[in-house]
């Protein structure tokens, strides 16, 4: 049993916890959630969280950004995090930084069956690589390499690869976004910002259609109260399926692909509608391969926190 400090640092929300780890089991004893942009740095936020508490000796943080050695710049937040500085300031014996999607992937062993919702059964008990795709504030992607005995998570920045449209509507969307951003990544269309981008594009010739944030678009689409929102969410779901299929082929995720992040659990009815799997499987001669891959939604939003806790417990 190890007592650890774990963190899930995102552009919108930061979650911190003191946890007890035993094998692959994680119990969160103390947990707090913070609005990231209300704090100037992780160090100041940790000061608030640890006030009046004994700091564990082992710490690990999943961070929404590319980790470079012992430091990381948060992609959608003006924070630079240095593991060695955190160790010095708070007396940690060990401090690990990992990409937030790597943390989510690392946290999968701590999830129970009830934490997962199956969209495609695939081959039950299949072994091999797996992958995670997670639309939220941004779009995260990670892989899990199967070494013959266990999965080894690894980070990618695949969400920033170039968006590739298929239909005429998607090609028009690309031209619209290219005029605004220059380079158009998958994150520009498959994320909270992406859903807003799609909705804004669809209402260009609809002056009476109001601007909405991602949550409002999703809600209006799911309850069927706004036709433009319905179309925007349908487009979003197709694009998420297409990129999930791309990732599954690149990683050869025979053991499955997992949908994480804040958005998928909130749009399960849309994911079950058929458009997601249709786009996921629409890979020509590789359709038969994708049909064998399990596809699951991570319904527990603490997966990245669990992964950080498990990584902290591994430290010597």
Protein described:
This protein is of the alpha/beta class. It folds into two domains: 2-107 and 302-314, 2-Layer Sandwich (Nucleotidyltransferase, domain 5), CATH 3.30.420.40; 114-299, Hexokinase, domain 1 (3-Layer(aba) Sandwich). It has eleven helices and 14 strands. The chain has helices at 42-50, 83-90, 100-107, 168-181, 192-202, 214-222, 227-251, 268-271, 275-281, 287-291, 303-314, and strands at residues 2-9, 13-22, 25-35, 58-63, 67-68, 71-73, 80-82, 94-99, 116-120, 130-135, 139-146, 151-155, 257-259, 295-298. The longest helix has 25 residues, at 227-251. It is globular and about 55 Å long. The two termini are 13 Å apart.
Question: What is the chain-wise order of helices and strands?
Answer: EEEHEEEEHEHEEEEHHHHEHHHEH
Strand order of the largest sheet: 9-14-13-10-11-12
- Major pleated sheet: 6 strands, mixed
> Treating each run of at least 4 consecutive H or I residues as one helix, how many helices?
11
Uncertain stretches of 5 or more adjacent residues: none
- Terminal CA distance reads 13 Å
Which secondary structure elements does this structure contain, and how are they paired or packed?
Blueprint: E1 2-9, E2 13-22, E3 25-35, H1 42-50, E4 58-63, E5 67-68, E6 71-73, E7 80-82, H2 83-90, E8 94-99, H3 100-107, E9 116-120, E10 130-135, E11 139-146, E12 151-155, H4 168-181, H5 192-202, H6 214-222, H7 227-251, E13 257-259, H8 268-271, H9 275-281, H10 287-291, E14 295-298, H11 303-314
Parallel strand pairs: 1-4, 4-8, 10-13, 13-14
Antiparallel strand pairs: 1-2, 2-3, 5-6, 6-7, 9-14, 10-11, 11-12
Helix pairs in contact: 3-11, 5-7, 6-7, 7-9
